[in-house]
Input
Amino acid sequence: MHAAPRQPIRLKPSITEDTVSASTLQMGARRAMCTHLAAAKADSNATPAAQVWRLVNDAR
Output
């Protein structure tokens, strides 16, 4: 009776931390884009650069 070798259990080995963080960033960017589009009418007088900065800051 010997113990099984200890190895980390991997439920989904194809998903790495990079994949998770990338998808998290993607979700954040998508959420920020929705916020940005919802505020587009109020932003219509702003320059494109100001709109981009709003998008970047919302993603943080």
User: Anything to note?
Assistant: Residues 19 and 25 are 10 Å apart (CA to CA). The radius of gyration is 21 Å. The chain has a mean pLDDT of 68.
